[in-house]
Design a protein that fits this description.
heterodimer, A: alpha+beta, VC0802-like, 2 domains, six-stranded antiparallel beta sheet, 5 helices, globular, B: alpha/beta, Rossmann fold, GMP Synthetase, Chain A, domain 3, nine-stranded mixed beta sheet, four-stranded antiparallel beta sheet
Chain lengths: 144, 433
Amino acid sequence: MSVKQISVFLENKPGKLSEMTELLAANNIDIRALSLAETKDFGIVRMIVDDVYEAVNVLKDGEFIAKLTHVLAYAVPDEPGGLNKLLAAFNAAKVNIEYMYAFLGGEDSKHAYMIFRVSDADASAAAVAANGYKALSQDDIAKL
Amino acid sequence: MEHYYQPEIECAPREEIVRLQNERLVKQIRRVWDNVPYYRKKMEDHGVTPDDIKTVDDLHKLPFLSKSDLRDAYPYGLLGTPLRDAVRIQSTSGTTGKRVVAFYTRHDIDLWEDCCARAICAAGGTNEDVCQVSYGYGLFTGGPGLNGGSHKVGCLTVPTSSGNTDRQIMFIQDLGATILCCTPSYAAYLGERMKEMGLGPDDIPLKAGIFGAEAWSEEMRRDIQNTLGIKAYDIYGLTELSGPGVAFECSDQHGMHINEDHFIAEIIDPDTGEVLPEGTEGELVFTAIDKEAFPMIRYRTRDICSLSREKCSCGRTHVRMSKPKGRSDDMLIIRGVNVFPSQIETVLLNHGYAANYQIIVDRVNNTDTFDVQVEMTPEMFTDNVGEIESRQRDLSAGLQSMLGIKAKVSLVAPKSIVRSEGKAVRVIDKRKI
């Protein structure tokens, strides 16, 4: 069970990120989570939004390069060792993590949410589930 | 005192030079007609035969050769001798993905090295000198040409080739190099590096430099002369005609003497092809009158300059050309290397990018900077930073192998490259030469 993340190419220049967020704001798209990978001359923005397809269309119309990537999302109890237990399940399932980032839920203050980029999202989700952790669905994320 | 390598030719009376040119031209046109079907057909299409060429004054009757002919006839189509008589090739960095490959017989190498020897002597070189050749060796003509010339003069030749600047400076100091041959931008770079190392002009024995293969200004000449404590001489040439040494500066430094016993120069209107009178600025055209393997007839250099037959204080009688002002097409000379935007386009397309790019050339501390900005495409974009960077490196390596020089590649957002009237601006040359 994977979640669709939007990856956007940005030049590493002042104002480029806000150009993108302005476009999303103008189209009423809510960013749930965001992480930025940067190099010297470009960056990749990774986001979880409430309306994936609308966001992709808006970005493409705005001359951004945007791609959908399948990632895994998990709810982690916001307490010492919470993330560690989840990563132990990843280890046990022999799933390699390319990158990850976290965000906090809306009303729910008892959980943090983790996004994981892995090589084969669905197979990895099944393997981690076998070790006791169920990935969240797109709907789950939208409801947060 | 002015030094000459071949005073009897370099200072020959005008009539003697013209007599030699007439004799060699007639022979050359006959030889090309007999041996180069490609040019023979051009002559036939032009309605001219070798019988029409009796003196230099008949030169204008002959059709031009241009870079596109070299591309069409690549690689062997313009060979003027049987292949067994050719002993060497040299090559340019290439146009539109195709390099110019020039052929040499032993005789051709000999005359080329004579030309370079004349340039070294004009810069004061004798067999007492240590001549460091920091032009690239290999396919590029710079290293091999000056190397041969230096041998002929009898200098102790130090073939450092380009790069490894600290070692260059070490050799200059340890071996007592008195003459330096390289591109002007490399000479300037060497000077910068010396400053960083705390070395001044008095710490090195250099007295003269022979700099060419790229455009440089009088300001740059002054800078180099001051930092290296030398007199800087200009040298001109192109691979199609042999390499450096087609023309060179003497002590007078008002233009470069063209080696007229080997090359006849004309100035034409680049649009009409009409020959222009002496002193008028136009496109420089050369006819190589005694080269055997690669006999260029009325070859259009696309360099814009003028010719002068005014008497020169150095005693040489060969015509002088002014420093070329620019090229009559879109070719860029970056760090002494010819770069065509179309080559960059070819590499981009080969690497899966769209041909949306911009070349930005600048000169920082007297050295050319060369940036290529490429627009990212949806096809080339992935979520993986490492993969994008590795493609960026592949592209950079592809450009280097095509152009022979390194470019800094950056990826930019789609549609971000400035377009004027819908047409992308491909080249931004910020250099002030």
